[in-house]
Amino acid sequence: MKSAIILFPGTNREQDMRAALRQSSGVDPYLIFHRETEVPEVDLIVIPGGFAHGDYLRCGAMAARSPVMRDVVAKAKRGVPVLGVCNGFQVLTETGLLPGALMRNADLKFVCRNVDLRVESSQSLFTSGLSEGQVMNVPVAHHDGNYFADEATLDRLEGEGRVAFRYCAPDGAVDGRGNPNGSARNIAGIFNETKNVLGMMPHPEDSVEPIQGGTDGRGLFDGIVRALS
Ligand SMILES: NC(=O)CC[C@H](N)C(=O)O
């Protein structure tokens, strides 16, 4: 599986993402700078976490208008799989590829800790290696992770099976206890209409080696590689 990771000034999770993709696919991803106007033909494009352009204006707002994003958006519309993690999720909402917005965390604090996530759908190329109802323990590290969309959009996301992950308690209960940022309906990750775009706030790439404190994120990458190879 060939992949490309997009880099902006201020991106900081590209090496973690690179290691996770290399571990699961055996292939080193391309690293593509924001000034490029074309992304090579790959099976998967990833927008990793960080602080693109210092989070100025709004997280992801300037990155979404980078030259490289024109080609990312065009390729996503053609069906190329695109994964955005954390800052990458913010960039994808700013491009309009995903609905809604990531607002300031409800308690206005940067949150950096492990959270529990319930897998809501295994019906996608991204989540086919995971089981519905499975609980994954992975880190979050953000100040703008509070997912917001209007009620009609939230109903539509739920009705179309486009909620990928929700924050939950360790026993899998989705009752708000595990929600670190105030996200609407405990949403931690969503798909676009055609499910070739996934945005998620938690960092599965930081949970693929025992030295990172756990390996719960690995199933996601192994599943993506199986789906795209
Ligand atoms: N780890 C990240 O990607 C952080 C995203 C963004 N800078 C925020 O703090 O919300």
UniProtKB/TrEMBL annotation:
The lineage of its organism: Bacteria, Pseudomonadati, Pseudomonadota, Alphaproteobacteria, Rhodospirillales. Pfam families: GATase_5 (PF13507). GO terms for molecular function: ATP binding; glutaminase activity; phosphoribosylformylglycinamidine synthase activity. The active site is at 86 (nucleophile), 203, 205. GO terms for biological process: 'de novo' IMP biosynthetic process. Its EC number is 6.3.5.3, 3.5.1.2. Part of the phosphoribosylformylglycinamidine synthase complex involved in the purines biosynthetic pathway. Catalyzes the ATP-dependent conversion of formylglycinamide ribonucleotide (FGAR) and glutamine to yield formylglycinamidine ribonucleotide (FGAM) and glutamate. The FGAM synthase complex is composed of three subunits. PurQ produces an ammonia molecule by converting glutamine to glutamate. PurL transfers the ammonia molecule to FGAR to form FGAM in an ATP-dependent manner. The gene is purQ. The keyword Ligase applies. HAMAP family: PurQ (MF_00421). It comes from Oceanibaculum indicum P24. GO terms for cellular component: cytoplasm. Pathway: Purine metabolism; IMP biosynthesis via de novo pathway; 5-amino-1-(5-phospho-D-ribosyl)imidazole from N(2)-formyl-N(1)-(5-phospho-D-ribosyl)glycinamide: step 1/2. It catalyses: N(2)-formyl-N(1)-(5-phospho-beta-D-ribosyl)glycinamide + L-glutamine + ATP + H2O = 2-formamido-N(1)-(5-O-phospho-beta-D-ribosyl)acetamidine + L-glutamate + ADP + phosphate + H(+); L-glutamine + H2O = L-glutamate + NH4(+). This is Phosphoribosylformylglycinamidine synthase subunit PurQ.
